Amino acid sequence: MSAAGSAVATARGQRGGQRSARGGRSSLGRRLLGALAVAVSLAWVFPVYWMISSAFLPTNELRTSEPTFFPVDGGLGNFRRVFTDPTFFSSFRISLAVTGLTLAAAILFAFVAALAVSRFRFRGKKSFIVTILVVQMIPAEGLFISQYHVLDNWGLVNAVLGLTIVYVAAILPFTIWMLRGFVSGIPIELEEAAMMDGLSRTGAFFRITFPLLAPGLVASGVYGFLQAWNEYTLALVVMSDPEKQTLPLWLQGLVEGNRATDWGLVMAGATLITVPVIVFFLIVQNRMSSGLVAGAVKG
What we know:
Blueprint: H1 3-55, H2 59-62, H3 77-83, H4 86-119, H5 125-137, H6 144-154, H7 160-184, H8 188-196, H9 201-212, H10 214-230, H11 233-238, H12 247-253, H13 263-298
Helix pairs in contact: 1-13, 3-13, 4-7, 4-10, 5-7, 7-10, 7-13, 8-9, 10-13, 12-13
């Protein structure tokens, strides 16, 4: 073999070794990222598992020095006690009513506002958009006193409508901003083409544009549902009557301040409160994922 041939073979071998080394480092990096993802997932999932498993254990076992990771001797006693508590069902009805009204009103108002901002030109449009951003930056705690005084003057303290108004005002800025991204991402030419084919403006909107906005509406709905269903602080301020509490307030009432807390009962209540959230998420998860990704890109 000539000297030139030997040099070429050596260079090829070196390049092959470099590719192999890079491939090994890339494979190691993927394994490390996978291990990190598993560790982070376990850190998030374990509290949920601990809550559910503790719900099946009697309180005396939860107070032992050795933790019980598997409820071998567990039962449904804690759940029976929750269902026999009449305040649980009244709080459930109030939470369901507040969440449903909040979701419907927030999506409707945000949808109309997003259409106006994206499709029409009007005086003060930029100021309106800036106001939406500024409102999102204001801490909710800074508005508690003024909100309470307004609701008190209207006679809406300890009322489902009063809490709904507060929730809608808190959720609207983000939902408007999210839906604005979806509406802006749909070309107006689609509606114009449908109108040229004989559809009215309203028909073109509901047959062409509205179906394309479904992922955005679902994503905004999930956000509004989670905010209204799980919110605690605003409900504590507005719903001070013990007979008109939402589920988070009811759950907090199970934690005794001066006596030993029945943690089995608390965990059973927390588990039941999460069931509607899980069911709602399973129903809309596909559209929610596509909606969040599209909204992030289009927004």
